[in-house]
Amino acid sequence: MPRFHISLLLILVLSCSGKPASNETMEGAIASDKEVVCFIYHRFGDSRYPSTNTPVKDFEAHLAYLKKNNFQLLTFSEAIEYLKSDKPARKTAVITIDDAYKTFYDRGLPLLKKYNVPATLFINTKTVGGGDYMSWTQLEESVKHNVEIGNHTHSHNFFLNQPAATRYKTFKDEIELSQTIINEKMNIRPVIFSFPYGEFDTKMKDIVKEAGFIAAAAQNSGVIYSGGDLFECPRFPMSESYSAQDKFIEKASMKALRISKRSPDDYIMPKGNRPTLTLTFDGDGLKLDQLQCFVQGGECELKVVDKQKVAVTLQAAKPMTKKRRTLYTITAPDKQGVWHWYSHLWIDAAID
Ligand SMILES: [Zn+2]
Q1: Which residues of 231-254 are buried (b: 16+ CB within 10 A; e: fewer)?
Q2: Which of 108, 126, 163, 288 is the most buried (most CB within 10 A)?
Q3: What global pTM score does this model have?
């Protein structure tokens, strides 16, 4: 039993140390109001897979919009450094691509070159060179054109499906294996990580921190901000149902709804099919009478519990359709009419 207590304490200490106080960055510098909008893409012009595909014309329109509107465009790791730095705030966006499908090399990369936009590509090393995936030569070629390589594990497995007894060791071993392979093949040691399917628990997040990465990308939608938890950076998905230009512009203009406290503090779906999420945030400057919440595939019930520091609970109005991943989202406009966004992912690992 004492061993259990020590390891529990360690987990608690690690999870606290990863979250800087809201007015400090991890380096202890005063955080400014800096935010970064990050987008996630998978396949390009490959309509066989609508849920992970972006039409090429949509991708080109996204890049053209970001350039025309003077966004600072950075790789993922550069954006993290920018958030931690004392550089002045600028409209900033990051393009990320997960899985390294060939369609990125054939149809995405030429557009990045045309518009001179950097990007970050998260690769799962096991599949490089096979089937629909890019080869090492194509990855090398991409790096020459300002594409940063990130770690996306070796196998891209559903790690939450493994029993806790083996999950963490397998996850850690895979991250290290991927780092070794990328280093051997490309002479690069990635400093950023992306969770396969955006799925993780608190301990997996700690493992990524301990492995020396500077940040990790999740798949909840939302905006990254200085002082936030950089090991679960939200990204807006840009697959077919979200990639139309009006929707892209709406996301590119979005601000973070900065949550200071949430319960539960992870994404594991609790028992029952109408999970309750309680969030606390600073309502200063927000039009709280226009708070909205959304449950993917259903209706949402929103209750304001405390108006002073704004605590709200969100719950699906009806039992949710059984899905592996479901998002709860809350948004509110500020007094300038700019919308602020937070989304919470529920993962039910019992569903394939
Ligand atoms: Zn992936």
Answers
A1: bbbbbbbbbbebbeeeebeebbeb
A2: 108
A3: 0.89
